[in-house]
Write a structure and sequence with these properties.
Layout: H1 2-32, E1 43-44, E2 55-56, H2 60-67, H3 69-91, H4 95-105, H5 109-120, H6 127-138, H7 143-150, H8 167-192, H9 196-204, H10 209-234, H11 242-247, H12 253-256, H13 259-269, H14 273-301
Length: 307
Amino acid sequence: MVVQSTKKKNMQGKKIVLLILPFLVLSFLFSYFPLHGWIYALYDYRAPLKLSQCEFVGAKWFVTLFANKTQVDQLMVVMKNTFALSFLGIATSFLPVLFAVFLNEMRCKWVRNMVQTITTIPNFISWTLVYAIAFALFSTTGMVNSLLLRMGIIDTAIKFLDSSNHVWLSMILWSMWKGMGWNAIMYLAAISGIDQELYEAARVDGAGRFQLIWNITIPSLLPTYFVMLMLSIASFLSNGMDQYYVFQNAFNKTSIQVLDLYVYNIGMTGKSLSLATAIGILKSLVSLTLLFSVNFVSKKVRGDSII
């Protein structure tokens, strides 16, 4: 019996390994294999030359980042944008939790499913299409300006998109609109895992609907929320590029350019792939340091680690 049990466990283990093998291969191909490109930071690379035909410069590009005052000033502006948008993202990270609780409390099932579907669909829309929607609504000739002009509320069109004013706020609002429903799914799954006997016992004690939410639902969601929050802090420098790339223009570039977009602009537009690679390496190292720091704090405060 013991031998059969051991063989059965071994077979189950092999099946699990086979199931996760494709994902391990994909992780290696898209997350680890590209790291060999870091070698470009050590050369003065000029496309379309081969790497062997380019001059080896060692740590020149890393030194340039901090030796050139203009480069440092520009990098500081980029970091300010990155930190501001990341902070706004973290500050609003509790909204999907509240939205998930709101959906869970809706008694009409078909209304709840409709609201959840409508709010989840934007996640599957590309940022290019999102900008097309924004342009149709908020450009100087868009629907909003045309309506305000016809109603006589304004005399000249408001530059919603062609201005650096309130660009951080507009970016976080578009990000929330796109990801609110999708981010709430994880919290809805956590809510479905809450022991229903807790609710029944609280109702017997006379707890009302709000008291059930405040004393059972929200505390049960906090562990999931804190894990997501710590992962967000660990990726503080990674805002992504797609959103800011499609919304950037000559008027708001200074305020909208985050670190990922800055690396892309230097590498592609500025044609300095080596410098862009050096900045990307430093960003990865800082992000990795943040991840381990947050994991250490999690172990000390919560007793649980995230990695």
